[in-house]
Design brief:
It holds the Pfam family Imm11. With 177 residues, this protein is mainly beta. Helices cover 11% and strands 33% of the residues. It contains two helices and eleven strands, in the order ββββαβββββββα.
Amino acid sequence: MPPFAWTFFGSGKGFDYFKDRPVPRFRVSCSDASKLGEATFFGGSGWIICSRSLADFLRAWQPDGIDILPIEVELKGGHIVPAGDYVFVDVTLRVPTIDAEAMNLAIIDGPTGRFYRPDVGTHFTVRKDIPDTARLFRDQHLPSLIFAADVVIQAYRRQRKWRRLYWRDPSPRPVAC
């Protein structure tokens, strides 16, 4: 089992809906493209937004469970970083992750799927039978979180790709180009 290391927020459905639509554009508070670097962004949309090279790094760890959608980035001042340098990343692999029995949670049917009750907070008891091949994944009943194995986080930190910048708009929305 890969050790639990970190969580992100997201949707887990991939980007099929967007593939035949105009490239999404997001605004950032930075005015110099060189300062974006390998930065990772966490947008209000719930997807990971990052450089193409960081997305490729993530896909290398979980090739069968990562979807990537190129985006444009609009810098403060209006300069546009073309599509492809930065991307949305969505983790689509779902694995039974949270040990509901150990956490005394019930799984109930809701209008859009099955959910844990009571609601899960930020501390989790992770199942011991998570496959070693699951490196980046979502829980099947709590798809808003992305779990990452320790080995991925350690490799990520060794790459020194971590840098967090902020969107000018706290809840960015795609803008048709």
